[in-house]
Amino acid sequence: MSDMPIFLQIRDDLAEKIRRQHFKGGSRLPAERVLAEQYKVSRMTLRQAIALLVNQGKLIRKPGSGTYVSDQEKEVSENLKGITSFTQIMQSQGKKAQSKFIVFKRHLPSAIEASNLEIDRNEEVITIERVRYGDEEPIAFEITTIPVSLVGNINRSQMAHGLYEYLEDRGFHFGKAVQEISAVVPNEIVCKRLNLTLGQAALFLRQTSYLTDDKPFEFVKTYYAGDRYRFYLEKH
Amino acid sequence: MSDMPIFLQIRDDLAEKIRRQHFKGGSRLPAERVLAEQYKVSRMTLRQAIALLVNQGKLIRKPGSGTYVSDQEKEVSENLKGITSFTQIMQSQGKKAQSKFIVFKRHLPSAIEASNLEIDRNEEVITIERVRYGDEEPIAFEITTIPVSLVGNINRSQMAHGLYEYLEDRGFHFGKAVQEISAVVPNEIVCKRLNLTLGQAALFLRQTSYLTDDKPFEFVKTYYAGDRYRFYLEKH
DNA sequence: TAGTGGTCTAGACCACTAT
DNA sequence: TAGTGGTCTAGACCACTAT
User: Fold this and answer.
1) pTM score, two decimals?
2) Residue of A76, A182, A232, A235 to mutate, testing the B interface (most B Cβ within 10 Å of its Cβ)
3) pLDDT of residue A72
4) Most buried among A31, A81, A176, B182, by the most CB within 10 A?
C-alpha cells in the first residue's frame, strides 16, 4: 500500500486509532504541528488527512482550540430506533412498490464516494440510479454506489433482483447502517425524476451500510419527494 | 469583502464565470498554473478554490488532461454531491444549546391539536413556541402544545425550566413517542424565526409523546433549518 | 501569553494525457 | 515531448482560544 498517497495512509491510520479508541470520543487530537512531526510530513499534508476525517464527521475542528474526535455515540443512541423502510411503508399504505433503473455504470469513485466507502480513488465502483414508485407515482430517487471489488461482475438484472440477496449468497453478512437525514430543495434533475416542481422540498438521506466486519459495502443517497413521503419513528 | 479568504473570493469568481457561461459547460478551464498566475496567488491557493467547485460538482478534474466545467445534464450523480458538502460541516456538536421563548399562551386547541392530544375541542391547552439555538445560531423552531388538564397553572419559567421535570415531579411517567419527519419549504414566519431565506428547505418533525398509560401529553411541531441540522440514525 | 487551526507562499517531483 | 492535475515541502503570518 506504499503507493497510496501519504495523506490517505495517515487518514487510515488516524481513522483506525479513533475506531480503536486510541483517540477517544470528545477528546482533543494532538496539534497538527505535533502530528505532522510524528508522521514526518509537512503540516499541509497532515491537514489533507484530517480534512477527509472532518468531512466524514469523525473529527471536528475548532480554530484556536484544537481538533476533536466527534462524539457520535450520543446523538445516535439518543434517538430513533426502528426507521421504517420504503417497501414497508408502501405496503402499510396498500401501495405497490416498484423501481425503475435509470443508470447502471462502472466508474472511478468521486472523493466523497471513495471516502464513504473507505476505498482508494482508483478502485472502481458501480453506481446505480433508480426511481422508486408507489402505485406508479415517483416517491424516491436513489443513487447507490458499491465497490466493484465486492460485487465483481454483477449485472443489471442481478442488481435489480436484489443487491442484498446477491451479497448474502456470496457469504457476506450485514452489520450496521449509518444514516443522516436532512432537508433540501433539489436541483432540476432530481425534480424531474420525482415529478417535483422546482422549489419544492425533499428529504435527503445519506446512508453508509457496513458488513459485519465494519467494512462499508454501499453508499446511498436518496431524495424523497417532500410531499409524498415521510419517515415514521417510534421512540421508547 | 476583502476580508474573505482569497480562495473563497476566487471560488466565487470562478463560479460566477461558469454561471455566466464565460467558462462553458464541457469546456476545459485554463490550467491551474495559468489561473494561479492570473489571480496572482500560489497554485495551492488556487487549488483550494477549485476543490470547492469540484465538490459541488461544478468542475471535474481529469489528471494529466485538465479541469473541466461539468456538463450538468449528463452527470447526474456527479452533480448531486454538491448539495451535501456544505451542510456536512454544520454538525450539532460542541455547541452551546440555548432556547428563547417566543409565545406562551393558553387557548382552545385546533382540530389537529385536539385530535393528536386525544382531547375535546373545548378542553384548554397551553402552547409554547420557542427557538432553539446552537452557539447563538437558530437551529430549530418548536411549537409545543399540552393539555391544561395535565399541567394546570404551569407558568412560563417553570416551563422554561423543563416540562419533563415538571411532569415527573407530579408523578407522571413517560411512554413512547411517535414521530414523523418530512421536508417542507417553510412560510415567512418560520423563515424569520430561523433566519432562513424564503425558499430554503427545512426538516419538519411532528411528534406526539405519550405517558405510560398511553395518554398523549404533548404534541410538538418542529422546523429544523435544513442547512444547519441533520438527524443521525444508526440501524443494526 | 502560548498554542491552535486557517490561510498562503514558492517552489518541487510524480504519473498521466495528448500529440 | 509538453502540459496537466496530484502530491508534498518547509516555511510564514493571522485571528482566535484558553489560561
Assistant:
1) 0.57
2) A182
3) 53
4) B182
